[in-house]
Write a structure and sequence with these properties.
Largest sheet: 8 strands, mixed
Bound molecules: adenosine-5'-diphosphate, aspartic acid, magnesium ion
Radius of gyration: 24 Å
Distance between the termini: 39 Å
Number of strands: 17
Strand order of the largest sheet: 3-5-2-1-8-10-11-9
Number of helices: 14
Length: 485
């Protein structure tokens, strides 16, 4: 096998990072299957790292637990903790024989459950739940499952060791959405993992979690285990990163909404970045960044259909670049409009509006300005609406008093539907087809924007119309569109 040239990590042999998502390690049969997949890959790679998520549903339960604690609902959080103990306990009973390793695992899990109890008690007594406190609580799901999975590998005869990513990934202090500091992360990751590779030990690393420079537990945002895998891939200069999930790969649409969505055998980094940004849950939006930097191929594969090749994501430019690749949707949004006839020609309104939004760290997902300059519209997550409206009203108090701006208002319950494809620019009439598709379904397009990257066109529609819009665009623009080419 040919080694990648210019490797800086000092590793011998080919390196693979494999990540198993929540459903792929969410039940006893799934864990058994994932362990078989690991076993099968060991002979093919010099260095193998496994990243695991919490068992499916566990992160949601931990969030509910912390919220019950801050609300003073002791009975509820105790009940959730008991449920989590049963879930992990039953899985251990199913998968592990009684031996020293199982005893050690049970001791470690008991310690983590004590920590959970203590954190909930603390949150309850203080009556306060900070982002930092929430990260401490949600980190426990990955810590539990990585220990469990590593023990399953050990009982299967594989030399394995659990590694908390708090020892590897260093982040800033933005708890719940922490950003990795790559230089420090690279030093720690190579320092901890390379000695394990040399001893032929398979590290099982917790997805999703990390630590700040001061060693406080942080997380990379919901769905962040994909990002963990590519961060480690970058630091180890891996040959490939594979994410194992519950669908056959990256598809032309979310298969839960479009049952005849097709698997894409190959997609580019840019297309997948755009898809993930615009709501395709199959990968965390930041997953691609670390692999683009080192040109590492990323594969998405199905744990429950492991012989299917899945989707390869890389930097290649393909000749079928005229295609429109996928349609996605982001939900839970509101459209904010700043409007007034007096805005016409007043310089700086847009800049001041977005400066006011930025103060609240609300992320603006899409912007559209009408050519008459009488309104600016942008889309934000619904939970940020009250703060954002007050911030703009405060910033524009003078213009509102003079009626240069008439009102700042929110339309709740909107969805951004996005058509994505590297061929968007070269393919004439994509927007006509898209609006034709919406028109035939009598769906009103509330606002429109073309992505600056020219990989996407987004339409804001009412939440009630979103699924129909996605299905219709899939049918007319992606399926029929590619037949016409
Ligand atoms: P994991 O726990 O393995 O990370 P996720 O639930 O986070 O899995 O992501 C996989 C899910 O993403 C799929 O079950 C599918 O419903 C959803 N999904 C949304 N859009 C797409 C898409 N375009 N292609 C594939 N899956 C998608
Ligand atoms: N367990 C985390 C979540 O549910 C991270 C992940 O699954 O990727 O968000
Ligand atoms: Mg995920």
């Amino acid at each position: 096998m040919v080694e990648k040239e210019g490797k800086k990590s000092g590793l011998h042999g080919r390196t693979l990072v494999m990540k198993f998502g929540g459903t792929s390690v969410g039940s006893s049969p799934a864990i058994r299957q994932a362990a078989d997949i690991v076993q099968g890959e060991i002979p093919r790679w010099g260095n193998l790292v496994v990243v695991v998520s919490a068992m499916s549903g566990v992160t949601d339960s931990l969030i509910a637990c912390a919220r019950a604690a801050v609300a003073g609902d002791v009975e509820k959080y105790e009940e959730i903790i008991t449920g989590l103990q049963e879930k992990h306990g039953n899985t251990i009973d199913d998968l592990l024989v009684h031996d020293e390793k199982r005893i050690q695992l049970c001791d470690e899990l008991a310690g983590l459950f004590e920590t959970l109890q203590a954190l909930c008690r603390g949150i309850h007594i203080m009556g306060e739940l900070t982002p930092r406190g929430m990260d401490a609580v949600v980190s426990l799901g990955e810590r539990m499952n990585a220990r469990l999975f590593s023990t399953v590998l050990q009982q299967g005869g594989i030399a394995s060791q659990v590694v908390d990513a708090t020892r590897l990934i260093v982040t800033d202090n933005s708890f719940q959405q922490a950003r990795p500091l790559m230089d420090a992360t690279r030093r720690k990751t190579t320092g901890v993992l390379i000695p394990l590779f040399m001893e032929k030990v398979v590290p099982v690393v917790t997805g999703f979690i990390a630590a700040t420079e001061d060693g406080i537990t942080s997380t990379l945002g919901r769905g962040g285990s994909d990002y963990t895998a590519t961060i480690l891939g970058n630091c180890l200069d891996a040959d490939e990163v594979w994410t194992w999930t519950d669908v056959d790969g990256v598809m032309t649409a979310d298969p839960r909404i479009v049952p005849d969505a097709k698997v894409l055998p190959e997609v580019s980094y840019n297309e997948v970045s755009e898809m993930a940004y615009f709501g395709a849950k199959v990968l965390h939006p930041k997953t691609i960044r670390p692999v683009i930097e080192r040109n590492i191929p990323l594969w998405v594969k199905n744990t429950f259909n492991p012989t299917f090749p899945g989707t390869r994501i890389d930097g290649a430019h393909r000749s079928d670049s005229g295609r429109i690749t996928a349609v996605t949707a982001i939900r839970g949004l509101s459209l904010i409009t700043v409007e007034g006839r007096g805005m016409l020609g007043v310089p700086g309104i847009a800049a001041r509006t977005f400066a006011a939004v930025a103060k609240h760290e609300a992320s603006v997902l899409m912007i559209s300005q009408s050519s008459s300059e009488q309104s600016i519209c942008f889309v934000i997550p619904s939970e940020a609406v009250p703060q954002v409206i007050s911030a703009i009203e405060a910033e524009m108090a003078f213009e509102l008093a003079r009626h240069d701006i008439d009102r700042v208002w929110a339309q709740p319950d909107v969805v951004i539907v996005t058509a994505i494809g590297s061929g968007m620019r070269q393919t004439p009439g994509v927007s006509a087809r898209l609006f034709g598709a919406l028109g035939r379904e009598k769906i009103n397009a509330i606002a429109i924007a073309q992505g600056s990257s020219e990989y996407s066109i987004s339409v804001v529609v009412d939440a009630a119309d979103a699924d129909r819009a996605v299905r219709q665009i899939h049918e007319e623009v992606i399926i029929n569109g590619s037949k016409n080419e």
